[in-house]
């Protein structure tokens, strides 16, 4: 299994003066698990504290005495760590490079000094609008500089930001706004993606007509495209108008390390998306430390993570990690294939990007377009590549390594989750030889284990469910408004451990290979969607009686969405209705949730107690009707035959 022929050693000459090497990794990893207090107490010195912590960790996964606290008597402010402390030595260094959707739009370079002033002006404006410590602010913005400014301005005044991905629908915005009780929303007139306009402000308007959203007092609107929007006074205010004229400095709020920094909604296997709550000290420390070590960060690097700030990757590795490390971080508004499929590589050349971090789905899509679109660009500035969001298949890994990186640049395949705050398993590029498709070894302080269905810990080379047996500082602290759900979701399945929801195998070299979700979460192009969310969206449609959704292998997206739908009696199955249902789901959740295939299901395979047997539906969707297994416990086994007959067969 270890396949040593496929071992990619650290390239000679890769290491710089601050690169972590193999022996340092081994030594520090051992220290981090043997003496976590000493290790993380030292690591905490990388942040600036108003009051340095004396208590390092206070953790128990025991359900009777559950607590996760890090640096609990420390006080700091995240925006001060990302901005103020760099001003004396790096005020003129570029903090953010902004590259717009169209290559014809002039790129922006924002220095740390300028970013600090922008953040302070907005922070002052928010305070004037009555936003203070602990208040929730929803951010629904395109990939523009103001997205980072808004997050940091909230952090500065102790408001808890909740970024909602710009691709989400009014319903999804409303669900999130009402769950966290936002007081204010920051949005833009419109976004731009691949030359198309996205009606952000109109989506907010529609969301605020829905029930549960009346906590929102103010909507700040960034003028981005200049498109016409409907301003409803006095609720809606132009961002420029409230920010211009504000002072360039703003007294930061003193935050306890365990005060909330942000809420980010993510899908689970049941119910509505949950508000993952991250706190200030542990999160920031972990984001900054992992960013520096995993990307082997150097002062002169130009670092580009292509994620959207609406996802955790954008939080930790576009904004908080890089800025806490005084890095130059590129924000890209556009998409990989606009105006053509060389766009990523052209942006790399234009801004002399040295570290490039993207998702397997983008790599696979670009791989399909052939080498020429890559090879006509230089990419000689690159020295390190990263991957995140889903398992990367070895074929895509090799293409990324050989074609994009010209076999020069190590690849860091980083495994982590919204819940983990930062990277947990990844190569350190100067220390760990890589294998295509493996996230390799754990980061400092991270203790993975594999368990079987009964919770027995598996040793050596094995495959099972991935758990983490002890806490790390970036761990989420709660589900907003529902602490019990946090405990039930992550700590009940395997007592004493955090359950990741992922399956995984470990080879003889101790390398981890994530195999994907083992729960009812589908990972579509690196975006998490719960099957329960999709099913409830489908049954909201007046003609739908019942729906069951599963994932199936998809060449580009990793997984696609396969929905089985039963209509109410008397309704007619038609192509037009199929199209309508796809549009309906897009409307309810957002375009990333579009079903790839809807199969009409006159009946669903149910046990006698009425439970849908998803295992069977998964096999049919995978086009593996010979692997259905035992169907004898079904109430009506004949429904399976008709589903198999009518299944969608990819060409
Ligand atoms: C998957 C994104 C394999 C995994 C940071 C996890 C990965 C889920 C990898 C979290 C990787 C993420 N290899 N699988 N390198 N990175 N995943 O919360 O299934 O959007 O549980 O966080 O993505 O997705 P989330």
Automatic annotation (TrEMBL):
Q: Which Pfam families match?
A: ACAS_N (PF16177), AMP-binding (PF00501), AMP-binding_C (PF13193)
- Class of the enzyme per the UniProt entry, highest EC level: ligase
Q: Required cofactors, per record? A: Mg(2+)
The EC number(s) this enzyme carries: 6.2.1.1
Keyword Ligase in annotation: yes
Name its GO BP terms in alphabetical order: acetyl-CoA biosynthetic process from acetate
Coiled-coil features, chain-numbered ranges: none
Q: What PTM annotation applies here? A: Acetylated. Deacetylation by the SIR2-homolog deacetylase activates the enzyme.
Where would I find the AMP-binding enzyme C-terminal domain in this sequence? 533-611
Q: Which residues form the Acetyl-coenzyme A synthetase N-terminal domain?
A: 25-82
Q: Where is the AMP-dependent synthetase/ligase domain?
A: 84-469
Q: GO molecular function of the protein, one example? A: ATP binding
Keyword set includes Acetylation? yes
Give residues annotated as binding Mg(2+): 539, 541, 544
What superkingdom does the record give? Bacteria
Residues that bear N6-acetyllysine: 611
Q: What does this protein do?
A: Catalyzes the conversion of acetate into acetyl-CoA (AcCoA), an essential intermediate at the junction of anabolic and catabolic pathways. AcsA undergoes a two-step reaction. In the first half reaction, AcsA combines acetate with ATP to form acetyl-adenylate (AcAMP) intermediate. In the second half reaction, it can then transfer the acetyl group from AcAMP to the sulfhydryl group of CoA, forming the product AcCoA.
Which protein family is it in? Belongs to the ATP-dependent AMP-binding enzyme family.
Report the protein name in the record.
Answer: Acetyl-coenzyme A synthetase
Q: Which organism is it from?
A: Luteimonas chenhongjianii
């Amino acid at each position: 299994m270890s396949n040593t022929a496929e071992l990619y050693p650290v390239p000679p000459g890769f290491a710089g003066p601050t690169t972590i090497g193999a022996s340092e990794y081994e030594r520090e990893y051992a220290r981090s698990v043997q003496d976590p207090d000493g290790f993380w107490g030292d690591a905490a010195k990388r942040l600036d504290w108003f009051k340095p912590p004396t208590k390092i960790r206070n953790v128990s996964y025991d359900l009777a005495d559950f607590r996760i606290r890090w640096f609990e008597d420390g006080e700091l402010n995240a925006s001060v760590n990302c901005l103020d402390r760099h001003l004396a030595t790096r005020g003129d260094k570029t903090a953010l490079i902004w590259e717009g959707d169209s290559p014809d739009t002039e790129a922006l370079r924002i220095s740390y000094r300028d970013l600090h002033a922008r953040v302070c002006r907005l922070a002052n404006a928010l305070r004037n609008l009555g936003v203070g410590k602990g208040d929730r602010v929803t951010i629904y913005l395109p990939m523009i500089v103001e997205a980072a400014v808004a997050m940091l301005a909230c952090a500065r005044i102790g408001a808890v930001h909740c970024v909602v991905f710009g691709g989400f629908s009014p319903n999804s915005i409303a669900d999130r706004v009402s769950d966290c009780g936002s007081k204010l929303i920051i949005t833009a007139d419109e976004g731009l993606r691949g030359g198309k306009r996205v009606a952000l402000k109109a989506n907010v308007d529609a969301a605020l007509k829905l029930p549960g959203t009346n906590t929102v007092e103010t909507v700040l609107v960034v003028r981005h495209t200049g498109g016409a929007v409907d301003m409803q006074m006095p609720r809606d205010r132009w961002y420029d108008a409230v920010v211009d004229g504000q002072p360039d400095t703003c007294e930061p709020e003193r935050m306890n390390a365990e005060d909330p920094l942000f809420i980010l909604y993510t899908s689970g296997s049941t119910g509505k998306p949950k508000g993952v709550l991250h706190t200030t000290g542990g999160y920031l420390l972990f984001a900054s430390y992992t960013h520096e070590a995993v990307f082997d960060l150097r002062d002169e690097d130009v670092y580009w993570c292509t994620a959207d700030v609406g996802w955790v990757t954008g939080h930790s590795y576009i904004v908080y990690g890089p800025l806490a490390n005084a890095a130059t971080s590129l924000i890209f508004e556009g998409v990989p294939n606009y105006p053509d499929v060389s766009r990523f590589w052209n942006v790399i050349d234009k801004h002399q990007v040295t570290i490039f971090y993207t998702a397997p789905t983008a790599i696979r899509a670009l791989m399909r377009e052939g080498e020429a679109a890559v090879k006509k660009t230089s990419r000689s500035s690159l020295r390190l590549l990263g991957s995140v969001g889903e398992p990367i298949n070895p074929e895509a890994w090799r293409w990324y390594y050989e074609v994009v990186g010209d076999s020069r640049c190590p690849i860091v395949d980083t495994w982590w989750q919204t819940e983990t705050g930062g990277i947990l398993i990844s190569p350190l590029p100067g220390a760990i030889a890589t294998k295509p498709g493996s996230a390799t070894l754990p980061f400092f302080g991270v203790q993975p284990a594999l368990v079987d269905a009964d919770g027995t810990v598996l040793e050596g080379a094995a495959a099972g469910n991935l758990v983490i047996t002890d806490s790390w500082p970036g761990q989420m602290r709660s589900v907003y408004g529902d602490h019990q759900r946090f405990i039930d979701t992550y700590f009940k399945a395997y007592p004493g451990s955090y359950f990741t929801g992922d399956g995984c195998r470990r080879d003889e070299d101790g390398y981890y290979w994530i195999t994907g979700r083992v729960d009812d979460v589908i990972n579509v192009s690196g975006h998490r969607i719960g099957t329960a969310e999709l099913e409830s969206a489908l049954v909201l449609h007046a003609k739908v009686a019942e729906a069951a959704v599963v994932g199936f292998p998809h060449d580009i997206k990793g997984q696609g969405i396969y929905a089985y739908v039963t209509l109410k009696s008397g309704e007619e199955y038609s192509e037009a209705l199929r199209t309508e249902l796809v549009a309906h789901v897009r409307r309810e959740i957002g375009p990333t949730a579009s079903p790839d295939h809807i199969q009409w299901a006159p009946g669903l395979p149910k046990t006698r107690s009425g439970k849908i047997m998803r295992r069977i539906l998964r096999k049919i969707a995978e086009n593996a009707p010979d692997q259905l297994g035992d169907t004898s416990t079904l109430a009506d086994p004949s429904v399976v035959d008709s589903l198999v007959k009518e299944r969608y067969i990819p060409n």
